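#data-curation
PF: Archiving a pair of folding outputs for the training set. Convention for this channel: one message per protein, sequence first, structure tokens after, nothing in between. First:
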Amino acid sequence: MKLRRVISHTFTFMMVVLFIAVFGSFITSKISGGEPGFYGYQVKSVLSGSMEPGIKTGSIIAIKPFSDTTSFQEGDVITFRESENRLITHRVIEVVKNELTGQVMYRTKGDNNDAPDLNPVLSANVIGKYTGFTLPYAGYAASFAGSKMGNVTLLIVPGILLVLYAISTLWRAISSLEEAGKQPKETLSE
């Protein structure tokens, strides 16, 4: 009984800490007006196998945004905006600097690709640098959560489970009160 209570309290404590961490991350992302992130790091889903085997398709990666996007070096893995709705994470294979304008561009290549990317990346299009943190296959869940079906599922299912838990708890409380009322009262006689 005591072990069960310790496990229950530990689980509750861990859930509260997790809730506070996620809520804090959400608030800081909203206040900064930026992309969703986790304490200064942005989380992105990987949708292709161009960086395999290091970064698997369907993984979630963490990137660190940089204000100075001209300081990356050969060998760094960067995430950049190719178009309005498309982000790519590839390795820098060459840094090209225009001496006249001072503009920095990067030639990039996916580790699993045979050839470098066709167009060099302007430093202004770089979002951040890959930190080395990868959570394999979690990107599939994140993509599902971002869909309409995922939103509905993630709102309705926990709501139904919460209602069922409340009904179960109420049922047990009523049953224990009924049992207490049915038990004969003992009288003391001298």
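PF: Second:
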Amino acid sequence: MKKLFLACFAALATVTFQVQATDLTEGKQYEVLALEHSAQPEVVEFFSFYCPHCYSFEMQYKIPEKIKQAIPANASFRQYHVNFLGSQGENLTRAWALAMAIGAEDKIRAPLFKAAQANSLRSMDDIRQIFIDNGVTAEQFDGSINSFAVTALVNKQTNLAEQFKVRGVPDFYVNNKFHINMEGLSHDNFVQDYVDTVNELLSK
């Protein structure tokens, strides 16, 4: 998988992206899950701040942002954190739940990615300081980090990861029914192929 990512990202440096239709084949670009189709169109990404490929997806190639811009107005895009990477994985899942609860995702996403990638997080206190340094008050953090709403979002993230049997990240799911198969996407036009595949699956 690591070699695949490196090959995909190396190709991106010289590619000019053009929007084009994706000829989707079940078992190639996507897999069908034995789950009930979502009532509304939705895209879910599972990620970890510790994951270098998630960092590249988010910070370098901006795939989540491109997906958000491309999907229909009636479709939702959500990012959920997983626990299984890094010493502060569980604390980061709770911290991301707090960010979602208070609408601070855009403030703390990049700082948390950079800190986790630098392996500089040792406790929730370090995470708390990142929130404070990026516009969240200490009172807001301390009063919300263990709140009922945040705990509910923690449980939602972990339960969905178990439901989808997420074993690696970044990992994308569409309409609760389709799992993107990264290995089946074009290596020469990886970013656009990802966006097009998500968009087409939303219509299924």
